[in-house]
Amino acid sequence: MILTVTLNAALDITHHLDRLRPHGANRVRTVAERAGGKGVNVARVLHALGHPTVVTGLVGGLTGRAIRAELAAAGLADRMLTIAGESRRTVAVVEESVGDTTILLEPGPVVGAEEWARFLDHLDALLPDAAAVVLAGSLPRGVPEDAYAHLLRLAHARDVPAVLDADGAALRMALPAGPALIKPNADELAAVTRLADPVAAARALHTAGAGAVVASLGADGLIAVTAQGGWQARPPERLAGNPTGAGDAAVAALTLGLVTGEPWPDRLTEAVALSAAAVAAPIAGDFDPAVHQALQTRVDVRPFATEELKPCP
Amino acid sequence: MILTVTLNAALDITHHLDRLRPHGANRVRTVAERAGGKGVNVARVLHALGHPTVVTGLVGGLTGRAIRAELAAAGLADRMLTIAGESRRTVAVVEESVGDTTILLEPGPVVGAEEWARFLDHLDALLPDAAAVVLAGSLPRGVPEDAYAHLLRLAHARDVPAVLDADGAALRMALPAGPALIKPNADELAAVTRLADPVAAARALHTAGAGAVVASLGADGLIAVTAQGGWQARPPERLAGNPTGAGDAAVAALTLGLVTGEPWPDRLTEAVALSAAAVAAPIAGDFDPAVHQALQTRVDVRPFATEELKPCP
């Protein structure tokens, strides 16, 4: 199975209404809610593809109970650890007349030092059964800034390859612990390296300790810098839709590729196809199977010279 | 004790942030949550004034559990009935740099016919201990449109005076069942009677079955049309603040007046003072005790001729 870790798991609430009137009272037409956070979304994609997954992370309070209830309803194996604090909610307000969304992100709980120590033991007990572990998303307050470095060392000691999807200090401090793969987006890449060129930035993170760097460049697809070479993979056309969750779908595909050991061009093709299929689905964690299948033969993957590390024009 | 009924109880969530960016991702700085709905807010005011209260109504799901947990934390006696549906949330997004608030109102659960029948029995069992009952707020889906008429007949059979704060069809259909007092605001009064003059409208509702009609006119205070005469009560000045909850504070004061049998001018003075004190407090259900006390001697109450039913100039 593939284990996904979501330290700041969320209850994602979606409010559908015609149009949001700021500074007014807005009647919500329909409400949807589901468990969220990047690791949960990755697990949802893997589960939909038929791969056994287990979700872990930290949840608490009645919002934590709602998260767990939805995980159970979705058929996702739940090994979340309960903490004292209240899990966060996100509220996405979807304006149907405008086709646009306003998002509110609560800060989430403060994790105690004893709770964090307990989570390290909890994760260590789950790792022996994992073919790979995915560490994804922001860190809750109270967890050390180098939290992902701790988790990566546990995975390394158990010989479990680890995929990291994080940004800022959490990403930078994790690199020396040697994640097998990281998947920053263009903004995260630029922020953490202060380099404008994504290839140069990916190369810098590869040098800093990441086994492979796959950066998502939105409509331009993915670039990969790995020990086996460099590639750029592009979708055949720009897709309209909801980009939230596209990165999580790419992480799911790349983690599967890591487990199966497929050649990099095949992994990247699958990652682009699944990302595009996620853009075509309205909710993060879902993907459109028809788009997924249609794109599997239509992704353009080209190597670039590893010396130059420049994408093909 | 005074019993308050909130058929569509809510979990009121408040998100504080600097400024809301529509169509963006907004990080919430702090989150507060409390049990809400008009009847709960009325009970909170009565409880703060030291009067024994019991809250009942319908709650369900994990949101219902969060509502009950907060009622317990607030020291409010909770006799809510649990239903299968999920209670609604309201989200108030407070922009601290602007001083303005955007509100999202979820529709709430659908109540089953068997659940509604069970609530009638549940309320009937609580009524013998009540000095008065307050029926306040919107009806959840699934409850009959004449729900308040049913509840008023139960109260009447137990000789318990009932105060109703409702609008639209729920108010109109309840009038023949003879509530002791109703408290529409200016908009509700106009909508239900199609009369522009609030005094004429209040008189129409009095004739239609309400023992007394006290209409809240915002900064213009209250007008009362009762069997004992007509009055207008005005605050000494316009108060800035949060008008949400001002009506609930007025209902709390008027219900106390009904129980104690004080003269109408005293009841109206207290209702205006408590309303103004609620406007001065940031959260619905709270009031500012200093404002409450300061205004008790400063409310201007004048009778108007019952034949004409025109407020004094």
The helix/strand order of chain A is: EEEEHEHEEEEHEHEHEHHEEEHHHE
Percent of sequence in beta strands of chain A? 25-35%
For the biggest sheet of chain A, the summary is:
7 strands, parallel
What is the count of distinct domains of chain A?
A: 1
According to DSSP, the number of beta strands of chain A is 16
The geometry of chain A reads as globular
Radius of gyration of chain A: 19 Å
Q: Given this structure, which CATH class of chain A is correct?
A: Alpha Beta
Helix tally of chain A equals: 10
Multimer state: homodimer
Distance between the termini of chain A: 39 Å
The CATH architecture category of chain A equals 3-Layer(aba) Sandwich
Kindly describe this structure.
The structure is a homodimer. Chain A is of the alpha/beta class and about 325 residues long. Chain A has one domain (about 1-5, about 40-85, about 110-305): UDP-N-acetylmuramoyl-L-alanine:D-glutamate ligase, CATH 3.40.1190. Helices cover about 35% and strands about 25% of the residues of chain A. The first copy, chain A, has ten helices and 16 strands. Chain A has helices spanning about 40-50, 60-75, 115-125, 145-155, 170, 185-195, 200-205, 245-260, 265-280, 290-295; strands at about 1-5, 10-15, 25, 30-35, 55-60, 75-80, 80-85, 90-95, 100-105, 130-135, 160-165, 180, 210-215, 220-225, 230-235, 300-305. In chain A, the strands form three sheets. In chain A, strands 1, 5, 6, 7, 10, 11 and 12 form a seven-stranded parallel beta sheet that branches. In chain A, helix 6 crosses helix 7 and helix 9 (about 265-280) packs antiparallel against helix 10. Chain A is globular, with a radius of gyration of 19 Å. The first copy, chain A, starts with a strand and ends in a 9-residue tail after the last strand. Residues about 310-313 of chain A have low confidence and may be disordered. The interface of A and B includes residues 17, 89 and 91 of A. Strand 3 of chain A pairs parallel with strand 9 of chain B.
